[in-house]
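Table S2 (continued). Query chain:
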Amino acid sequence: RPVENLEDLVKVGDKIQVYVLRVENEEGHPILSKKRADRQLAWEILENSLATGEELRAPVIEVVKGGLLVDVGVRGFVPASLVERGYVEDLNQYLGKELRLRVIELDRGKNKAVLSQKAILDEEYELLKQKTWSTLEVDQVLKGIVRRLTNFGAFVDIGGIDGLLHVSELSWGRVEHPRDVLSEGEEIEVKVLGVDREAEKVSLGLKQLLPNPWDTAEERYAVGSIVEGKVLRIAPFGAFVEVEPGIEGLVHISQLADYHVAKTEDVVSVGETIPVKVLSVDQVAHRMSLSLREARGKKEVQETQESTREEENNSGVKLGDIFGELFEEEKNQ
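Corresponding output:
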């Protein structure tokens, strides 16, 4: 590397290694080279590292086509594919940073040194993976990093092992896509649901660490109460209605209206919000029976009563007073 200030490299009183180019020049002084000595020492270190696998550390001095140049006493090359365990889109982020490296190829005659940081990271990852497998058990709660999102779930790194967090295990409520709940790179806590060491598969759960709304359903949804819910699915025998995330009940086709219903979709549609009356709750079996017919009937009665009270308040005359007078006249006659 070019040196602008000599004092940045050596100072008076420093002991340095030099290479003798000439024993003496015309003036009788020896011609020495620190650069040549440093290069020779650097090659010796690189050769030792190649033989022993010893880790080296070196700063990135330049981004070139296909990889990075590092200063290991000589110019070393780190291919882009050997910088990290995964694909790196922008190599410029490494400029000026120190890498942990292992020598994988040397040719002193061609002044060629190829190094890899990925080799070290892969080795550490494998050790971590073995350690995790040796201690992994069902029902453990672990911290992990969301590595990848798919339509059917998320892959979470729990320590050298990518476990599957299925979309059905994300929440007690319905989740359309994992990205609605998680993001790549996010750290989360998960529960181990299943371990298959032979197939090297791990299933994980997130909702198990959250309160299950069914545990208190009977207390919060009293039989006879009317609540609003969203139609999630339609079947020939009725409609499934979500009264809160994680709790859904069935409105049987016979409970849709006070008349004969041939098709469920003739009365309700998916996504529609409707009032329903709670007929029964089984929080152990996670079942709830609901009625749209009775809810609308009760709602109409309530609306009629409210309308009557409003008319009485506006007129200042109560129906009871009018009928009371009529009853009184009838009595006197």
